[in-house]
TrEMBL record:
Signal peptide: 1-36
Organism of derivation: Leucobacter komagatae
Spans through the membrane: 616-635
Name by which UniProt lists this protein: Uncharacterized protein
Keyword Transmembrane helix appears in the UniProt entry: yes
Keywords for this protein: Membrane, Signal, Transmembrane, Transmembrane helix
Amino acid sequence: MNDHVRVRRNRTRKPLLAALLAVPLLLPGAVPAAQAASLDGMIAIGGYEMGAFILADGSLAYCLEPGAQAPLSAQLPPGRVSELPGYSVYVDDAWGWSGQVRTSPATGEVMRQLNWVLAEHGNTTDSEKAVAVQIALWELRREPGNAAWIDGKYAHFNRNGGAAFVTAGKRLAAEAKTAAVGPGNVRPDAPLELTQDTEDGAESGAVSYPRGTTELKIAGGRFADGSTQLKLDGSTAGSVRWSATPHEPAWARFNDVTISGTWALAERYWPAELIVHPSSRAVEQRLGSGVKPVVGQNTGALGPVSATFDSRFAPAVTTQVPEELVPRTTGLFRDRVTVSEADGRWPERLDGGEMLPLLAEGTLYGPFVSPQQEAPDPPVDAPVAARASVEITEGPGTYDVETSLAGASSGYYYWLWMIREEGQSEEIRAAEILQPGAVHADRFGVLAERQIVPTELRWQTRLAEHTITPSARTLQDSVRATLVGGEWLQDESGARLQANVRLTFYQLNERPERQALPSPAARELGHVLVPMTEVDRWTEAPPFTIPADERGWVTVQACLIAADQTAEIVGKITEWCDDFGVPDETAQIVEPLAETGGPAPRPEALGTLFPISPEVALGAALLGMGGLSLGIALLRRRARLM
């Protein structure tokens, strides 16, 4: 409330009012006032009336300009404004205050606060509350140019029992500064929060969203239902699971999952506007009433929030040959390459289940004549028998590889496999999923990666004698070995593997025919073993005695069979037999003559054992038949001729 009628009767100064910056608009349906606002219902505090003016239409309005003259003239039609002009007036009132009052224009938040006080509390029939409303309006427009006038009135009120009104008005002004909110005053009570699962290498997690969330979108992943966009009603807060979809569209070391959203919340805010009721006299101040709050919706964006996954990993490679021995005739080397995860998880595209493709390269080193020691790398001068590669397209697992070396030399062979970063495709190298320049390899000389092409031996055998007589029934045999297709394998000490050759003695009634297998008519008499470690050198076998009751023919077959070898040697020297019935390995049993009285050998039979003429043979036959004189004569004649 400002100076009213009684003030004017005492002394009146013409105020200097600035023009309104915003032209008041006629409110729809408003009827121009035909009379002045009424002071009925105000409270006089020490003679100074405070409270609300009653307008011609019965509504309430309050003074907006501290120190300016009270609007006692007829009111003009009201208008809605967003700014109150500044003013400067000289005041000399009946309550002992005189001086210049200056007030700046009111805009923005001050207008909003004034509106809140008027709209929320100004339309009251409580006269005491109306006094507090007026004091709150003064407080909200308080500034250095009008503070002395306002404080002068407070001092007057305090002296006249109105201190409670001042306190209530100040409290209402303070409340207005926090309660008079503008548009956008309601926001979500929490941001989007992205969490990741704690399992090692997990590329999944959850996102929590606040109440009011209307939509969530994900890039670089998908939600639990498989979608990349979720519609929500915003009624409650919540969370939803997500998982990454890395390496789309290209393989990459770093993959981001980004989630964003939108929100919408109902809000109530106060326009920074007032309804102004101007007086018909320009020197009198304006009255004001409030504008209703706006009930609407505030919207905005959530996030984005992101998680970055590092897909760098290191593979491991090991191998296990399915069989250690490789026949020289086939030369087929097989290996089983097992790849696994040494560090990190094997990168995978979820769509289609495609695993990061890699190339593993294998080198078959050999032949070595002796076993090799396990080491990180092969010897500098290690021979290379073959190279192979395998495309790792299914991720961790076992892959079969084979390569053929026709006529491979006997020896020890070792596989060594590696996955080289520099050996991968341009796409994989550009992704930098593998450490640049990295080599992931197993060790050289691993027993599980060894294959052996066995030594192959051939031999000659020969009997020292080709007749077995009653006085000489022991056969002495000799063996000479030769190599086929490579070297004689050695053990770890460098010594040749000992080959035990079995000499089997067979008896037959007839002279044997040369053939691969023993004749069904042959009867085994026994065998001896000949240990051999030399090439192209005759080795004598242990002597073998033919039982005294045996007759006919004896032949020897030489074989190397696994059963005769030590466990360490088995398989490392190929089994082989020479022919049965070899002439050099065949002897005839000569029956005793006088002792047995049996029939004499046939001449042709004798001729096969000795290089003699038919005459000598006949002579010997005659000796056996009792023709002693004729037999001796023939033998002597043969001797003279010789």
